[in-house]
Structures are given as structure tokens and as C-alpha cells.
Design goal:
The complex is a heterodimer. By secondary structure, chain A is α/β, with parallel strands linked by helices. Chain A contains nine helices and twelve strands. In chain A, the strands form three sheets. In chain A, strands 6-7-8-3-9-10 form a six-stranded mixed β-sheet, sandwiched between helices. The N and C termini of chain A lie far apart (46 Å). By secondary structure, chain B is mostly helical. The chains are: A alpha/beta, B mainly alpha.
């Protein structure tokens, strides 16, 4: 893995008339797992799409290795930077190995078609995600958890040093969520891939992130290591949620316990 | 779990098997289409043997009576069946794959009816020459496609909205055609109605030549773009993330299909259902993974030539090609609507 610079400077992003992210500076930590959290519609997916040049900035710029990402050829960007969108579409009747193989797109061209290198990349992606045994199955026959692993395999076959994932754990049960995040951690630790994930689950975010970015109304409220960033105060600011933050009994990372209006113990030891 | 070193080999051999299968089946389809092409020049009130047909078409030997029947009478019709079938099959599959919906074929979403409206207007109002008919059919196809694209555009195109608006455009075009025909003289109206059912036998040589040139230019381009189509099929975001230029490729693929539909309609009228059914049949035969744009063209040709043979040789009464394709296509459409709704992908 070579190291890469990915950052947004004075970035404004939006759809139609509305700016969703405005004047935002962000620097993706190389070789680390960054998790972006925030309430619904805070602009975290928009930011991710902007960083992956799926959305043209209204203002500012996204810089990849010293150059504006929109000045680079899109296949060249796609060799370095991959993205798994929130709800990817699989055409009817397509097999797992075919889908994963399509991740090789940026490495092929008009004259350079399928080669042995592509076979190796597809196999490695299938092995890494534990989907090699599913290779000839139809996507539509798979369970939600298997399907998500196959999509990750497709993004891995693209063989990029940077991988962005937009809410990859949605629709997965807790077991598969943990499995997927463990897989992404393996990829980061073993091959040094830089990973950026948009996640909803704060406790998993705190556990798996090296670096956490908390967003609200299109701006970054706090960022840093989860232990430094995730405090009851920050969570209340970001989500408007009254809560306790306690150490996660397994990992020791911060764990957010919402207070809510009901069910609080009268003289709970948890109160400050 | 399988051995790590073993997986690339398994992937590679499976890919080889799949590609060979697709190659063999596509070749077989091409052979069948060619055989039907030759047969349709053999049969009729005066039977000609296959060697005589080939010898005459290839100018290998001269035999005035056979040459007149084969070259002048039957070759244009057979060639029209072949070319129209290929054009409709290819453009149908491209629409379905670009828009990600089996209902999204040009004859279903108003491209064919737009072309028909303009061609019928040219026939009825201006008593137009063949170049003008081809030209106006093309303009009609492009205009209705442009209208659908503009109306369906909302930060991108989804197949569902494209189809609904396309059906609306179809109805608009059908009512405009009705208006034109109702203002025509009884003779012109009859001619226009015959044309509207669609028949490969009515081809003018100018329109046919335009379609053949269009195919020769656009087919290689389309086959070259199939690689990008495979990325586009995964949705806009994924395709962009893979580095595909989504809008450019989509416009190129849809644009090429629209031109082919326009030229095909100019030749044979709006032959229904060929574009709708050829693509899915081809994909079922060669496998989803192999794609099969060429196979779709072959299947389209088989259906069109087959329907023309059936309508002229098998049935007791002479029917236009479009009636026969309608008889095959309508039950398929009903089946498709039922199953699509069950799976919830047609919206």
C-alpha cells in the first residue's frame, strides 16, 4: 500500500437548491479507519459522495494526492479510491463471481480485457470476504448478510488503497454487523487500506474507529480518537440526545447509553 | 473453505467454460438466423433451391429468371427482416439493461410510436420519398426519446419513471397518429394502417440501405461500449465509483439504440414486441453474465424472419409480420407484468 492524501478543502456540497455541506475542511487519516457519525440528514453521506467525486462540489475542492479529484481521469481515481454506495443495485440473475468481477472495471480498457491478474484479484476478494463458496450462486438467492459481503468483495476486487463505505451495516443483524466491521478491520490491519465508513451505530463506531468524525448540519462538530471525542456533551450537541457515556465492557472504548424519558432507575449509580 | 491457491484456477476455468458456452450459443443463433434468411428467399409461389439462392445472391452464376425472383423480389424482404430484427433485438436489450427493467424496451416506452407518428405524417401529408421517411422516423424517435429523457430527469434517470413517462408518450403519439389518419383520404388511411401494423415486405430500398449503413456503423460501437454497460448496470453511484463515465456512456448507448429503432421503423413500421422479447430470450440462452448484445440481435432476426415466414407461408391468409410477433409477444408481456409485480421490481 502506498500512502495517500485525501482531503476536502472549503468544501460545499448539495442537491438542487440546497447546500447540505458548506465550507467544510476535512482530512482523511492515511492508513486508519475513519468513521463518520451524525444524525439523519446531517450531510455525512453527502460528504462521502463528495469525497468519492460522485457529487461535484458547489465550492471548494477535493484533493487526492495533491490534485483536484475532478481534474483527474475517473478511471485513474477509481484505481486508488473505491466506494460502496448505500444501496447498490445488482442486475437480475447475475452470479457472485460476475458481480465481483465487475469491480475490475478501472483496471481494464478497450484493449486490455480480462487477464490472469483479474482472476487473482477476484479470488483474493472472494477469499477475504469468505464468499468463495458462493462464487457461482445467483445474487438474488443470497441472504442480506451474504449479499453485503459480496458487495464488499466487489469493492475489494477494485483493489484500491482507499475504500469508502456508506452505511454498509444497514439491513444487517447485529451479528453480521460485527462480522463486517471485523472484516474491514482485518483489511485495514493486514493490508494497510485506508477505510472511511459512515455508520449509524455509535457504539460500534467508537469500537472500530481509529478516528471519528461527528457531524451536524453539514459541519464537523468534533473529530479525533473516540476516547477523546465521544463525551456525553458532544453526543448531546450532535444528536440532541440526553445520555451517559460509559466504557464499553469489551473494548474499553466509549459506549453511549441514551437516557430517554422512561425506564431510568430512581437512584441509579449511573447518574453524574 | 477451499485452498487459497485453488480459487484463481477455479474462477478462471469457470469463466472459460462460461465464455465458451456463450460463444457457441451465439454462433448457433447466428447460424439459425442465417438459415431462416436463406429459407425466406427459397419459398414462395416459385420454389428456389438453397444453392441457387446463394449462387444468385453472391452473383456466382447468372440465371435471369432465378435472379429476378431472388435478387429483385425476395432479397430486399429477407434482408429487411434480418436487419430490422437485429436492430430491434439489439436496441431492446440495450434499453432494458441501461434502464435496468425488462419492461423498458423502445416499443413499449414510446420510441417506436414516436418514429411511427413522424413516418406516417410523412407518408400521408407529404407523400414522402424514402429518404424523407427514414429521416422523419429518426427525428420522431429522437424527439420522443428526448421528451421522455427531459420529463423523467431528476438528478439522474430511473428506469421506473422513464417507463411511466414513456407509456404516456406512447399514448400521446398513438392519439396523434389517429388524428393524422382520420384526416387522410381513404386510400392513404388504408396504406398508413397497413404500415402501422408493421411488415418487412414493405421496405423501400432507400430506407433499407440507411438501416444497413446504420447497423454497420453502430454495432461495433455498441459492442465496444458493452464493457461500460456492465458497470452502468450496477447503478449510477457504483458505476461512477468504478470510474465509468455514466452520463456519456448512457447517452451513447441509448442514442445508438434510438437511431437503430428509428431506421428500423422506417423500413418495416413499428413491428411490436421484437425489441421487448429478444433481449431476455438471448440472456436466458447465453447466460446473464455473458451479456449477449450480439445474441440479442440474432434472436431479434430469428423472431422477425420466423414471423415473416409464418405470416406468408404457414398461415392460410397473408398477414403482416407485426400481427404474428404480436401473437407471440402479448402473452410474454402479460407473463412479464404478472411476475415483475410479484417480485416488486417493476414498481
Amino acid at each position: 500500500m502506498t500512502s495517500h492524501e485525501l482531503r476536502g478543502s472549503k468544501l460545499s456540497l448539495g442537491y438542487a437548491e440546497k447546500d447540505i455541506v458548506s465550507d467544510l475542511d476535512v482530512d482523511i487519516v492515511d492508513g486508519a479507519i475513519t468513521v463518520i457519525v451524525g444524525a439523519n440528514a446531517c450531510g455525512k453521506s453527502t460528504l462521502l459522495r463528495g469525497l468519492a467525486r460522485l457529487l461535484k462540489p458547489r465550492g471548494g475542492d477535493v484533493i487526492l494526492d495533491g490534485k483536484s479529484i475532478h481534474d483527474l481521469r475517473s478511471v485513474d481515481v477509481a484505481k486508488v479510491l473505491g466506494l460502496l454506495p448505500q444501496s447498490p443495485v445488482a442486475p437480475d440473475g447475475i452470479t457472485v463471481s460476475d458481480l465481483v468481477g465487475r469491480g475490475r472495471y478501472p483496471h481494464q480498457g478497450w484493449f486490455r480485457r480480462w487477464t490472469a491478474e483479474d482472476d487473482i484479484a477476484v479470488s483474493a476478494a472472494l477469499e477475504a470476504t469468505g464468499t468463495a463458496d458462493l462464487a457461482y450462486r445467483n445474487i438474488s438467492e443470497l441472504s442480506g448478510g451474504q449479499r453485503q459481503r459480496v458487495w464488499v468483495a466487489m469493492a475489494l476486487a477494485q483493489d484500491t488503497d482507499l475504500l469508502l463505505l456508506d452505511e454498509p451495516t444497514t439491513f444487517l443483524d447485529i451479528n453480521h454487523q460485527v462480522e463486517l466491521l471485523d472484516l474491514l478491520t482485518d483489511l485495514n490491519r493486514h493490508s494497510g487500506k485506508t477505510i472511511v465508513i459512515v455508520l449509524h451505530d455509535l457504539n460500534l463506531a467508537c469500537r472500530y474507529a481509529d478516528h471519528i468524525i461527528a457531524m451536524k448540519d453539514g459541519a464537523i462538530i468534533a473529530e479525533g480518537a473516540p476516547n477523546d471525542v465521544v463525551t456525553a456533551e458532544v453526543i448531546t450537541t450532535v444528536y440532541g440526545l440526553d445520555c451517559e457515556v460509559v466504557p464499553d465492557p469489551v473494548s474499553g472504548t466509549p459506549m453511549v447509553v441514551p437516557r430517554g424519558r422512561h425506564h431510568a432507575r430512581a437512584a441509579a449509580g449511573l447518574t453524574r | 473453505m477451499t485452498d487459497l491457491l485453488d480459487t484463481p484456477r477455479r474462477i478462471r476455468s469457470a469463466r472459460a467454460v462460461r465464455n465458451r458456452r456463450a460463444y457457441v450459443i451465439t454462433t448457433l443463433l447466428a447460424v439459425v438466423a442465417f438459415v431462416l434468411f436463406v429459407i425466406s428467399m427459397m419459398v414462395g409461389s416459385y420454389a428456389v433451391s438453397a444453392p441457387d439462392v446463394l449462387a444468385s445472391v453472391l452473383h456466382l452464376r447468372d440465371n435471369p429468371s432465378v435472379d429476378f425472383i431472388v435478387r429483385d423480389l425476395r432479397l430486399p424482404t429477407a434482408l429487411a427482416g434480418l436487419a430490422v430484427g437485429v436492430a430491434l433485438g439489439v436496441s431492446g436489450q440495450l434499453f432494458q439493461r441501461v434502464l435496468g427493467n425488462p419492461l423498458a424496451s423502445p416499443d413499449f416506452v414510446g420510441i417506436s410510436s414516436g418514429a411511427s407518428f413522424f413516418a406516417v405524417s410523412a407518408i400521408v401529408l407529404f407523400d414522402a420519398s424514402s429518404t424523407l421517411i427514414s429521416g422523419s422516423a429518426l427525428v420522431g424517435a429522437l424527439l420522443s426519446a428526448g421528451m421522455i429523457y427531459l420529463l423523467a430527469w431528476r438528478d439522474g434517470i430511473t428506469g421506473y419513471r422513464f417507463i411511466l413517462i414513456g407509456i404516456g408518450i406512447t399514448q400521446l403519439m398513438v392519439s396523434l397518429i389517429g388524428y393524422i389518419v382520420s384526416h387522410a383520404s381513404i386510400h392513404e388511411a388504408r396504406e398508413a394502417m397497413t404500415w402501422l401494423v408493421g411488415s418487412v415486405g414493405q421496405a423501400g430500398s432507400g430506407e433499407l440501405r440507411t438501416l444497413l449503413v446504420g447497423l454497420a456503423v453502430l454495432l461495433p460501437v455498441i459492442v465496444g461500449l458493452e464493457r461500460s454497460l456492465r458497470a452502468l448496470e450496477l447503478g449510477d453511484d457504483t458505476a461512477k465509483a468504478l470510474g465509468a463515465r455514466v452520463e456519456l456512456n448512457r447517452l451513447g448507448l441509448l442514442g445508438a439504440s434510438i437511431v437503430l429503432v428509428g431506421f428500423a421503423v422506417a423500413v418495416a413500421g413499428p413491428i411490436m414486441f421484437v425489441a421487448l422479447i429478444a433481449g431476455p430470450i438471448a440472456q436466458r440462452l447465453v447466460g446473464r453474465t455473458a451479456g449477449g448484445i450480439v445474441a440479442a440481435g440474432c434472436v431479434g432476426a430469428i423472431i422477425t424472419l420466423g414471423a415473416d415466414l409464418v405470416s406468408h407461408q404457414v398461415l392460410p391468409v397473408d398477414l403482416p409480420t407485426g400481427v404474428v410477433t404480436g401473437l407471440i409477444g402479448a402473452p410474454y408481456l402479460i407473463w412479464l407484468l404478472v411476475t415483475v409485480n410479484k417480485e416488486g421490481r417493476g414498481g
